[in-house]
TrEMBL record:
This is Ornithine decarboxylase. The active site is at C392 (proton donor). Catalyzes the first and rate-limiting step of polyamine biosynthesis that converts ornithine into putrescine, which is the precursor for the polyamines, spermidine and spermine. Polyamines are essential for cell proliferation and are implicated in cellular processes, ranging from DNA replication to apoptosis. InterPro entries: Ala_racemase/Decarboxylase_C, De-COase2_N, De-COase2_pyr-phos_BS, Orn/DAP/Arg_de-COase, Orn_de-COase, PLP-binding_barrel. The keyword Magnesium does not apply.
């Protein structure tokens, strides 16, 4: 799957990718680059004799991965202009890269809008996609000339009339998000029974309704969720026309996941072409699709507890890492994720560097037979571990059960792929642990490397 021959200075390979010949998930080169960055970093750290915090968890981010996702988007959803959902990962390099690639941005707060504007993005490329806005933020957006924003209730319309009467409004409608990872429609979205009434009030208040928005739920697994949402949006366009509005934009929200992207894109494109003529502008608010796979997190094992089950004559271990659910693994609590540990290095001097350039095995774990780290246990039987975060809270558990044929000890490093969405943005400082972890940037695509100076 990952058999990609790619030389950083090889333009032919680049144009192969542009034409769709390369695997969209990146290749062995990307994995090797990430591995090299991980190794370089941990080689500078002696976990048994370093300054406080020097061995903190850190990220390696592949901007090439974000770049590939954008090209893949353009290939399969060319009609739809992505507005990256900053909430998912407000990493400044990601925002800069997507700005340079011409994407728009979905912001939900003053701080997000401020960050995107400071990157040099024109206000017309921002949608304030928060149907229930803070008054002072709304004042700020009006002052900054950010006009596009969503609403879904009458109170919000009065608020907009008072503070931002020239806004371009998108009526957010409810969707069936039952097949998604994080449901949003229990909190936001006007039901189809209310849309006419809301549009009529907007008309009475002389507000400018420019379009319709929906979100099928974050981490949507059923592409058909888009079918009903698009046809409902069509009905709202028709209601608006009846009231004298001329809507010009449909916002199809986020929810896209890498694994099913082509299927979703095909279903969505079909529905859009059926219900909306080409002159209607279509935008989207993808978040995790863009960043999830680009970030790899490395964590240090700070402590280990040996657990002997004398009755069964089995020894297992509890591993304590320097990052947990109050930190970058907040995705376990808030985003229903199950991050998969892999061994990065064992042994004090990192002579047991164990990073795998292959994709995960079917079981979800890196093959233990890949390399002899010099620390494989003599029985060669799988050892059982549970993995915990650094805080005092018992809920701070990353994996209740993980098996490996390698012995993992204090000072060793584990790594977790796919840590780029809803992770560091929701990390806390609980127990005084840092919520600011270093990110090392690499690029497995020359296009992104050139844009970002990597
Ligand atoms: N747009 C809105 C309004 C959201 O609330 C979210 C996520 O919560 C997104 C976009 C991004 O969703 P996703 O990361 O699933 O693409």
């Amino acid at each position: 799957q990952y058999a990609v021959k790619f030389n950083h200075s090889n333009n032919q390979a680049f144009s192969d990718f542009e034409s769709g010949a390369r695997d969209h998930n990146g290749g062995k080169v990307a994995k090797e680059m990430i591995g090299a960055a991980l190794q370089k970093k941990i080689q500078t750290i002696d976990p048994h004799d370093c300054e406080a915090g020097e061995e903190d968890a850190f990220f390696v981010a592949d901007m090439g991965d974000v770049y590939r996702q954008h090209m893949r988007w353009k290939r399969h959803l060319g009609r739809v202009t992505p507005h990256f959902a900053v909430k998912c990962n407000p990493d400044p390099m990601v925002v800069r890269l997507l700005a340079a690639l011409g994407a728009g941005f979905d912001c939900a707060s003053k701080a997000e809008i401020e960050q995107v504007l400071k990157t040099g993005v024109d206000p017309s490329r921002i949608i304030y996609a928060q149907p229930c806005k803070t008054k002072s933020y709304l004042k700020y957006t009006a002052k900054q000339n950010v006009k596009q924003m969503t609403f879904d209730n009458t109170d919000e319309l009065y608020k907009v009339k008072e503070i931002a009467p020239h806004a371009e409004l998108y009526l957010r409608i409810l969707t069936d998000d039952s097949a998604s990872l994080c449901r949003l429609s229990q909190k936001f979205g006007a039901s189809m029974d209310n849309t006419y009434e809301l549009l009529a009030l907007a008309k009475k208040l002389d507000l400018n309704v420019a379009g319709v928005a929906f979100h099928v739920g974050s981490g949507a697994s059923d592409p058909s969720a888009f079918l009903k949402a698009v046809s409902d949006a069509r009905l709202v366009f028709d209601q608006a026309a009846e009231l004298g509005f001329r809507l010009h934009t449909l916002d199809v929200g986020g929810g896209f996941i890498s694994e099913t992207f082509e299927d979703m894109a095909a279903v969505l494109s079909g529905a859009l072409d059926e219900h909306f003529p080409p002159q209607i502008r279509i935008i989207a608010e993808p978040g995790r699709y863009y960043t999830s796979s680009a970030f790899t997190l490395a964590c240090n094992v700070i402590a280990r507890r040996t657990v002997e089950d004398k009755a069964l004559d089995v020894t297992s271990y509890m591993l304590y890492m320097n990052d947990g659910v109050y930190g970058n693994f907040s995705s376990i609590m808030f985003d229903h994720q199950h991050p998969i540990p892999q061994i990065l290095s064992t042994g004090r001097k990192q002579d047991g560097f164990n990073y795998s350039t292959e994709s995960l095995t079917d079981s979800g774990y890196a093959s233990a037979e890949e390399e002899d780290t010099g620390k494989i246990n003599s029985s060669n039987r799988a050892i059982e571990y549970s993995i915990w975060g650094p805080t005092c809270d018992g809920i701070d558990c990353i994996a209740e059960k993980w098996t490996s044929k390698d012995t993992v000890d204090v000072g060793d490093w584990l790594y977790f792929e796919g840590m780029g969405a809803y992770t560091k943005c929701s990390a806390t400082r609980f127990n005084g642990f840092t919520d600011k972890h270093e990110t090392i940037y690499v690029s497995s695509e020359p296009g992104a490397a050139a844009l970002m100076g990597l």
